[in-house]
Amino acid sequence: MTAGLAGRTARSVRWSFGAVLARQGFQIICAVVLARLLGPQSYGTIAAATVYISLVALLLDQGLSAALIQRQDITRRLAGATATLNLLVAAVLAAATWFAAPAVAGFFGVADLEPILRALAFIVPVKALAITPRALLARELQLHRVGAADIAAAAAGSAAGIGAAVAGAGPWSMVYQVAVTDVVGAAMLLAASRGPAPNLALRAVAPLFGFSLSVFATDCLAYFSRNLDNILVGRVLGVSALSIYGMAYRILVVPVQLIGQTVNRVMFPAFARSAKEPERVAASLIAATRILAFSAVPLMVFVSCAAPELVHLVLGPDWMPAAALVSVLAIGGARETIFYITPSLMKGLGRGALIVRYEVLAAVVQVSGIVIGLQFGVFGVAVGYTAAGFLLTPVLLRIQTRLTGVSARSQLASILPAAHAAVWGAAGYGLWQLGDADRLWHLVGGLVIFFALAAAALWLFHRQILAGVVSQARGLAGRAGNRSGRPRTPPSPAAPDTPESPDVHNQAGGLHG
After folding, report:
1. pTM to 2 decimals?
2. 459-466, long-range: CB < 8 A, 24+ apart
3. How far is Cα 35 from Cα 51, in angstroms, rounded to an integer?
4. Which residue, of 351, 359, 398, 454, has the fewest CB within 10 Å?
5. φ and ψ at 391, to 5 degrees?
6. How many CA atoms lie within 13 A of 71 on its CB side?
7. Is pLDDT above 80 for 495?
8. Is residue 206 classed exposed, middle or buried when 0-12, 13-18 and 19+ CB atoms within 10 A define those classes?
């Protein structure tokens, strides 16, 4: 591998993080502005539309993009045939959306939802145009090109959505946001990947289905277990409750997408390229778990503690019922971010059947938690969803042990320092809240105290591990570069940077929940 290639790969990793950060930043700003302008009732229409459009986006791909990334060798002819199949499916889904709009609007009891869904149906083929180019760029670790497209699309879409809301478009602001985001993103990804040109050699796609269909089945199960709470809340408790729950749920999604996706954009292709090197896979799992834990746990514990102040200051008093939900879901978001690495591990090692089996189990557990929680209102749904996720944690630990040989004890030891630091920070924040001050001073002072105590705990009790995490985070770019530069003759794996090295054995061998 040349120094130039290593430099390009490191730049791609930095772009990946920057792109996810920027995209989430723009989307959160847009969501907050729309929420403040529209209020819970009108914003509930957007929340209901989002549930349906997320399903359409899932059905567009059928797992083919993951198969393109995971497959060792592909041709432009295969990629072009995949693009054709995406467009054909998009045409069918656009028509289905048009005709299903009245039924979906009736299900949620929101008449304004029907014309919004019919307008969004015309955007579905645009989404399809971006799927294969994004997969090809990710496969080659050209993440800086994907990142540039994501940043530009998110910025343009957010500007369009906010502008429409200010102009009085109401829930239709979502249509402007989605349309501009998809058009800009598809145009830039097509230009960056130079195609591929669609063709009619659809039989060439057949070898991908063995892996893609298992991924697709997994994604479908994940969608329904992730969104059943939104569906049931909207149907049973109404769109106002759905908007409050959906806004709180975004707190859970933020670290998963911001931190988890950044790491996984590198780790999925990296796991796939080093699948025949168990020691490298094990070391990468431990490094990624530490980085995810240090990035997510203190942050989300702080959000859980500061939820009342954050909701009041950011969203306004009308949204205060969401504060309790934010406190619960933020803890679930920390856990989910850490184990976001599991599906990338399973996909990268080609264990599609294992993914499906896990998702079936996870769906049953999640649905049970949600249905039980629904009996106690929207807060009960949040508690049920979060509790179900923690019940699945031992299963995820066992799966990672089977695939890498890293013991559950070593995996938990990788998480412990971040959790220990967060406990110290939470204790300090709780004591600070006993004082008499306004909300802004409570939040600012609590922020300083929380992270000062968390940093002190890391420095006093976990100094060597902290240094290792910093080193490993810097090393992700270099290791990804090694794998992309010479995937068939990789260098020997690097040893872990801390004393808690993985227990690697000879045995062979998500996410949600």
Report:
1. 0.70
2. 461/417, 461/420, 462/417, 462/420, 462/421, 464/498, 464/499, 465/290, 465/417, 465/498, 465/500, 466/294, 466/417
3. 17
4. 398
5. -65, -25
6. 21
7. no
8. exposed
